[in-house]
Each structure stands twice: as structure tokens, then as C-alpha cells.
Amino acid sequence: LDKYVAAVYEHSVILPETTQKPVSSEDALKLMNKNMDILEEVIKRAAAQGAHIIVTPEDGIYGFFFTRETLYPYLEDIPDPQEVNWIPCNDSQRFGPAPVQERLSCLARENAIYVVANIGDKKPCNPTDPKCPNDGHYQYNTNVVFDSDGKLVARYHKFNLFMSEAQFDFPKEPEVVTFNTSFGKFGVFTCFDILFHDPAVTLVSELKVDTILFPTAWMNVLPHLTAIEFHSAWAMGMQVNLLSSNTHKTGMNMTGSGIYAPDGSQAYHYDAESENGQLLVAELHSHPSISPTYLHSVNWSLYATAIKPFPENNNFKGIIFFDEFTFSKLNSQAGNLTVCQKDLCCHLSYRMTEQQEDEVYALGAFDGLHVVEGEYYLQICTLLKCRTTDLQTCGEPVTIAHTRFGYFSLSGTFSTNYVFPEVLLSGVHLAPGEFQVLSDGQLISQN
Amino acid sequence: GTTKPILTVTLFGRWYESDPPRPEKGPAQL
């Protein structure tokens, strides 16, 4: 197929009651069945709309706030689909009790749709294994994929666990999990994995997958790490389809799912108000690398290193998500501006058309190691609205803006070619079709 | 121009080669 229909579901997960004592496996299954009752209805709706595949979120079946011990009743032994040919719907007891895999498999089979879900895997280990936990087993945050016959075709153990996931173990090596379909080659990873090289970049750059399946439980952080913003940018930067299904829990800043293609979002959902779930369905190219809009190569530093730097204004420091940026205020209605930090210089050309007097914008640069919820090296160029006219608020989260820009061009002297172009509009909206990336590394407004 | 005013326009670069080695131990409790 040249094209296929993808679905993602942002699920408002029903959480178990917080407990220090593990519940029985019957009570654990009761809770998981409540979530799967909702997923069942959604899977039927997606299939009725012609979807070939549906992605559901990380923690979408058992929720969160577990210890290692309280999670255990929710886990099942998930076999390696590379080694076994298994349709749990037909033979659920083959590898021990597997009621969750059985139900997911049957939903896939009965609705003739690929189903992607996130559940927990347990694997006994030998005490002679120096890494074997004291309780004698590993437990993994796991994505599973069932094909339209209900067969288990992929299993992925999350590698880059988020800091609050002490209930899980990570695999010794990153797993590079792919599978082929009549609508392209797929890869899979989970949530925090997207910020790291392995397995995320390897799947795209070396294994040449067409679409990434991405269950997540993403806590939004403005101005740069809101789910819809960063995930759509990653799909554009990597030139790959990304099916991102977020858990919906506004109290934890979790919302924002989308069907993202290399040329922009095809459908997205962001709802910080209600506690409702949302199904998204959209058509994608099965092989985006041979679609007409595919960008074959971008040299992200070409323009920025070729031009003579623009004048620098009085710089000042500001914090974005614990990182100290160097900022420069946009002092006039239009102009050219450069701001540098260490090896990174960021250039901006802009023209405001409706400047609001009570709003201040700044150009910022950051070149350094981020060391808070994980350790990863960033080089960031950003044009942003400051929270108030006080420059000390530049970099603080903002959701509403009124100043209009008629034109912008942003570029930087990046040391890496892995650069993700983010544009976020007032009200936390994406801007598909309203900006473009040039092959010389400029991010410019479309008109 | 854009349909709504801009909150942020960003080039978010990840320089993977400069990441520190991965810790042997798993993540700490938040």
C-alpha cells in the first residue's frame, strides 16, 4: 500500500487505588479490564474508520504510582516474538496466564487491525546473574504489537527509563525492534527513549523504518518539551512518521498526542481542560522517504556558519527547564539579531506586524549538558515570548501570545545534524504548513 | 503569516556524541 490509515488514542487511564501492599492478581486484572473496556470501544471505532493500526499509551492499561512490589500482580510473561509464533487469542495459556495479551490479541483479530499497547513483562532470572534483582526476576516496561490476525509480532522493553520508574528494570542493551507490514516498516520505542540516540535514532538512520510507534506518558514542559511540539518536531527532524499516543492526565500535565509525518502534523490533540480521551485518525504515506515532500538532506549549520553574525544586543541570562540560556531582547519591530553561547551562535531575522506593547520577545541560545531528569547534551536556538515584560521571566512557561510576526528566519551553528524544528502558537497549537525548513538549515515562516 | 501569534520558534539540537556514558544503575526514585 502506498498509503495507510493510522489511529492513536489519548486515553484517560483509570488508576488503581494507591496501596503499599500488592493487590491480588484478580484485582489487578479487574482494573486492567476497566481500561481495556474503553480501549475495546475505541479499537472498534478506529477499525470502522478504516484504520490499519492503532497505538494506545504508555501506562494506559494499569496506570502509575507503583512500587516494584505493587506492580508485580499486573505483569505477565511476554515471550519473544522472534522466537515464538503465537496468537494469544487462540492459545492464551501457552506461556502461563496471559489474560491481558489474550484480550489485546482478540481485539486485534476480531477487528482486523494492528494493536499497539504498553503492558508489563516479568522474566525470572538466575541468582548467579550479578544483575538479577533480589526478588529473582526482571520487570520491564513493555510495548507489544499484535497484527491483524492477533499474532504477537513485536515486543520492546523500554531502555531509557524516566527517573520515577524505579519499579522497572532496563534491558542490558537497547533493543532495536522492527516489523514489516504491507504498509511499511515499523519501529517501536517508549516515551523518554525519544530524547536519546538508542534505540530511537538507530531505528531511523540504520534500520530505515518508515513509521515509529510511540506509546508515551509525557509530562508537558513549556517552552520546548511539550508533547505535541517536541514529538512533531522529532518526526520532521528525523523525516519519519511518528504515531504518538499520550496518556491523558491533566493533573500531571499529560496531554498531547498526534499522527506526525515528515512534513508536519496530520492530526493532533491537546486538551489541558477536560479529562476526556480522544481518538485521532489520519492517512499517512507508507514510505515517507519516497513521498514528494521528503527532505533528502538538511545541513543544519550551513546558513548560520556562512553569514556574518548580526549585531549582538545587551545579553542577559535566563533559565529554561533548569538550563541557563543566554538571551537577547528583540528591541525593534523588525531586525537581525545574533546571540551566542559557547560554540553555538543563533541568528534571527524577523518582522513583527502587530507588536503588543505589553509583550517582550527574546532570542536565546544554550550549548550544554542538561542534567536534571536525565543527562543529555543540547544545543538550542529559540525565539520565545517572555512571561511578562520583566526580562527575568524569559524562558518561563507561557501559553498565550498576541504579537504577530510577518516573517522569521532562525538558524544556528550547530555541531550536530540532529536538530528538531519546533513552532508553537498561542493557545499551545501546532502550525503545520505555516513554516518550513530550508536545506541550508534555516527555519522560516512559510509566507 | 501564521494563523495565531507565536509562543516559541525553536531549533532543538541533540548532540548525542557529547552525552555522558550511561550510568550502570537504573534511575533513582524521583
> Spans of chain B with pLDDT under 50 lasting ≥5 residues?
none
Return the average pLDDT of chain B rounded to an integer.
82
Q: Largest beta sheet of chain A: what is the strand line-up? A: 5-4-3-2-1-12
Main sheet: strands, sense, barrel of chain B: none
Q: How much of the polypeptide of chain B forms β-strand, as a percent range? A: 25-35%
Strand tally of chain A:
22
In N-to-C order, the SSE pattern of chain A is: EHEHHEEEEEHEHEEEEHEEEEEEEEEE
Structural class by secondary-structure content of chain B: mainly beta
- Judging from the principal axes of the Cα atoms, what is the shape of chain B? elongated
Give a quick account of the main beta sheet of chain A: strands, pairing sense, barrel closure. 6 strands, mixed
Quaternary assembly? heterodimer
Number of helices of chain B: 0
Low-confidence stretches of chain A: none
* Beta strands of chain B, count: 1
What can you tell me about this protein's structure?
The complex is a heterodimer of chains A (about 450) and B (about 30). Chain A has about 450 residues and is of the alpha+beta class. Chain A has helices at about 25-50, 70, 100-110, 200-205, 225-240, 300-305; strands at about 5-10, 55, 115-125, 135-145, 150-155, 180, 185-190, 210-215, 240-245, 255-260, 265-270, 280-285, 315-320, 325-330, 335-340, 345-355, 360-370, 375-385, 405-410, 420-425, 435, 445. A six-stranded mixed β-sheet of chain A has the order 5-4-3-2-1-12. A six-stranded mixed β-sheet of chain A has the order 6-7-8-9-10-11. In chain A, strands 15-16-19-22-21 form a five-stranded antiparallel β-sheet. Chain A starts with a strand and ends with a strand. The model of chain A has no long low-confidence stretch (mean pLDDT about 95). Helices cover about 0% and strands about 30% of the residues of chain B. Chain B has one strand at about 5-15. By secondary structure, chain B is an all-beta fold. At the A-B interface, helix 5, strand 16, strand 18, strand 19 and strand 20 of A face strand 1 of B.
